[in-house]
Amino acid sequence: MTIVVGYVPKPEGRAALVAALEEADLRGESLHVLNTSKGDAYSDPGYASQDDLAEVKALLDESGVPYELEHRLGDQAGGAADILEAVERLGASLVVIGIRKRTPTGKLLFGSDAQTVLLHAPCQVLAVKAG
């Protein structure tokens, strides 16, 4: 089976990647690392640069865990929809996401991708805090 991890080039994304690698190694499963942008915005702060991807690829190669790295522009629905689509498409056994504290107003105005994944994923979800 496969573990899906939503990666963003931020501390919570790196924490999720490390936790996902540990889980994949422990379970003997492959890893699918997903990084997307909302809409067609290359300027989305969650969209990894080529330097970010080189770091991720080096960490993945060093781990010895079989992996696939998916880096693409998403749809307008955003990161949660892309993660849930990958989980369904791959029949994932686990999804790993990074989380951060947000104010109630921030969640109200912008929504929460983490909450959407937690509530709608058809498999187990591991939510990881940075630091």
UniProtKB/TrEMBL annotation:
InterPro entries: Rossmann-like_a/b/a_fold (IPR014729), Universal_stress_UspA (IPR006015), UspA (IPR006016). Gene3D superfamilies: HUPs (3.40.50.620). This is Nucleotide-binding universal stress UspA family protein. SUPFAM superfamilies: Adenine nucleotide alpha hydrolases-like. Coiled coil: none annotated. Pfam families: Usp. Belongs to the universal stress protein A family. It comes from Quadrisphaera granulorum. Residues 2-129 form the UspA domain.
